[in-house]
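Researcher: Next entry in the queue.
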Amino acid sequence: MSQDADQPIRVVLVDDQAMIRAGFKLLIDNQPDLEVVGEAETGSEAVELVRSLQPDVVLMDVQMPDMDGIAATEELLKDGSSLKVLVVTTFQRDDYLFDALRAGASGFLLKTSPPEDLVEAIRVVNAGNSLLDPLVTGQVIAQFANAGPGVARSERLDELTEREREVLEQLAGGLSNSEIAEALYVGETTVKTHVSNVLSKLGLRDRVQAVVFAYEHGLVRPGE
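Model: Structure for this entry, 224 residues:
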């Protein structure tokens, strides 16, 4: 659900630790453009609450009783919802990140990040962009590096034009639209069109999932 331009970004907090939620709420409610509208301490509570309140952004913990944050994210986004989920965790297991991105999360941030990074991350994902903590990005690449060369290739790649495939490769390298435009000697508007086509043809939610797809299906390899 998108808010009016003059309305604050409506946020739901999901974490099984009350002190964490209290800290996040204090930080977020001190921002003039952000507002906490609800809290949940389990994934199942989060699903029910989010469907009732229809917020713009959910801050989602991973390790929770009853239903974890990955399952809750997948449930909330399975029907193509425009809801933005920002996973905020201590990141103790690499597979949490990968599963969260597959489930449709728009961002992944560590709880050790500075407070200003958290509030900015909410704004970033609400605007329709994706976000990965720099330390998390390194973990993504490391996971693919450890996976070896046997990554399956998807037939969906064959639906892309040569230029769209080049754009996907640049996305996987972490380049912005302007940087891709410069690298491929095309206009930024053209790049935006190609990115949109890539996401549509591959059935992906955002740029983060495009990066995962590119590595997962062998279009690029770590170190390339």
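Model: The domain at 150-216 is CATH 1.10.10.10 (Arc Repressor Mutant, subunit A).
Researcher: Noted, moving on.
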